[in-house]
Amino acid sequence: MAQNKFDLDNLRLRQLELEKKMQKKREDIQQNFSTLFAPPPPSHNIIENWMNKAQQTAAIVDGILFGYKMFKGFRKIFPRSHKK
Hints:
Elements: H1 8-36, H2 46-77
């Protein structure tokens, strides 16, 4: 009879290792998320403020246009039923 390499002690140790790795990944994701979505640092230069506002406005417009295109794409896939 072959020896079973998956006994309870090995499984528990493996589970603990995986839980530690998952916790580390959670912390990494949280750190990346907070740095990605952090507001830009305030500047004391009026030109930089205008550039930041222009970038924010462009990002908002881009998001709206992307949403509109996605909506139109979904309308092609799922057309409105015309009841007579």
